Amino acid sequence: MSSDSVGLLSSPERSSSPSLLDQNINDYATTTQIFDDYTGLNFQQPRSPSKRQLTIEESLITTNDPKRLCNSNLREQTDLNLISSTSLHTPLSSANSIDSLSIPSSPTTPPLSTDVLNWLATFLGMSNEDRSRATEALIRTCSTNTLQLNHIKNQIEPYFQRDFVRDLPRELALHVLKYLPASDVARASRTCRAWYETCNDILLWKRLCQTKVIPLKQSPTIFDDIIENSWKRSYACHKHLEYTWQHEKPLPAPLIFRGHEDFVITCLQFDGKRIVSGSDDNSLKIWSVATGQCEQTLVGHNGGVWCSGMTDDLIVSGSTDRTIRVWNIETGTCQHVLYGHTSTVRCLALHGDIVVSGSRDATVRVWNIRTGERLHMLSGHTAAVRCVCYNGKYVVSGAYDHTIRVWLPDDERCVHTLEGHTNRVYSLVFDGKHIVSGSLDCMIRVWDVEQGTCIHQLTGHLSLTSGMQLRGNILVSGNADSTVKIWNIDSGKCLHTLAGRNKHASAVTWVQVVLNYVVSSGDDGMVKLWDLETGDFIRNLVKLESTGNGGVVWRIKCTDSALVCAAGSRNSTEDTKVIMLDFD
What we know:
Layout: H1 12-15, H2 18-25, H3 31-39, H4 56-62, H5 71-84, H6 86-89, H7 114-124, H8 128-141, H9 146-156, H10 164-167, H11 170-177, H12 182-188, H13 193-199, H14 202-211, H15 230-247, E1 255-258, E2 265-270, E3 274-279, E4 283-288, E5 294-299, E6 305-310, E7 314-319, E8 324-328, E9 334-338, E10 345-351, E11 354-359, E12 363-368, E13 374-379, E14 385-390, E15 395-399, E16 404-408, E17 413-418, E18 425-430, E19 434-439, E20 444-448, E21 453-458, E22 465-471, E23 474-479, E24 484-488, E25 493-498, E26 508-514, E27 517-522, E28 526-531, E29 537-543, E30 551-559, E31 562-569, E32 577-582
Antiparallel strand pairs: 1-32, 2-3, 3-4, 4-5, 6-7, 7-8, 8-9, 10-11, 11-12, 12-13, 14-15, 15-16, 16-17, 18-19, 19-20, 20-21, 22-23, 23-24, 24-25, 26-27, 27-28, 28-29, 30-31, 31-32
Protein name: F-box domain-containing protein
Keywords: Repeat, WD repeat
GO molecular function: ubiquitin binding
């Protein structure tokens, strides 16, 4: 499969098929291939015209008969038949005639000649030692003829091959199979009935999904009636989504949500069911993905909404009116108004029932969104706080005073002040161990949160880093220099620069990592899709009508199955709207 980037366990007949070769190039992820590989309904392998006809014995391997045998079963059964034949395991006396030999023969091959039968009778009458010497002499005699040696090799090899899936205890066979890529396990399940049953073990597929961080998919899928194994079905859905993001043509028809008139959409949230957009028109709107309609318009702020957050049942918003409001997502009513900041609330970070807010008043405040209570105030910055992160233990804040501060909120204590940037800090990401900061000084710095030290300085961008996303040790950064870069924060090296003739024509406004792709939006009115592993451009996902003439995509949010972007223009050439592409 595409994410595994490995070859598949397939028969020569299957791998030589031109149509399947094309699918290999497309990462075996088309819907048809996923149905074939992951359902296991079709055991029989297609035969290439250039290959020989299957013998009767071989045809048993590819039949759909539930009683059919694996290769090793067939060989052992044949061996037992030979052993049970008295004429083949009892040495012939001189009185025995050649006619008394019972030699198994295939209906597709001619009977053995008299000379061969005489030679075989002599061989069977020998002692074990003489048989070994005669075999060695036969091989030496054939050593000058490559065709004969190959024939001997092909006849002997199957007797030394073991079917580990059938012969090993099930637990050991599953232990071996878990080291294979999921694509190979899926293809191996089509070998025979015994392999199919073992390769469809639910715990095996659970481990394979967990290795790729693929969650169990509960919602209805296109594979529900075909794949019973819930974890295998989740993997198949994941592969299907990877294919549709990259290859589906035409692109899914966009769902358009129009609102906020000609104002700028400043913040965007998306949970798969609802979209929440905040604007400098002082309002937020809740859009239903199912109906395409605006469910609620949240009105109450006396200034533009600059930041927002979302839980299962609540929406939190910060505004230029210096307040934070907590809204009920179902009814649209305002449950709490949080007063305290003395200037614009510029950023929010949600963790459970706690929200952390950063303001242009240079303070960071901690609130409980259920009770509306202010828990802590963190003072120390000397200029506006532009970005905050919170993981339940540490609060991390970046400010226009060129510093990043690490706080223990319960103690209201700053444990580290991270100095090094020479200009305003605009963006932060925090994974609990590493802090990554982007600044107007064109630098990205990686810090150790426990030690408070700078680990790496990532150089290469030429302007402000507008957005970043961290997945494991891979960092994706979007910059106002119109490029996107992919970094390894462990080594500090730039892996790829997403540029070239397909790069954005102006500043990159936002970046998201979804599946194995990077999605970037730009001031040029475009949303582009890139390969995370190779850095290659794949295709344009969104192109506004006013692209190149003032159209802007301000924000994007992605799930594995959908893309949501907030778009408009700076000169009224494009309506302000939210665009959604559903790939599921």
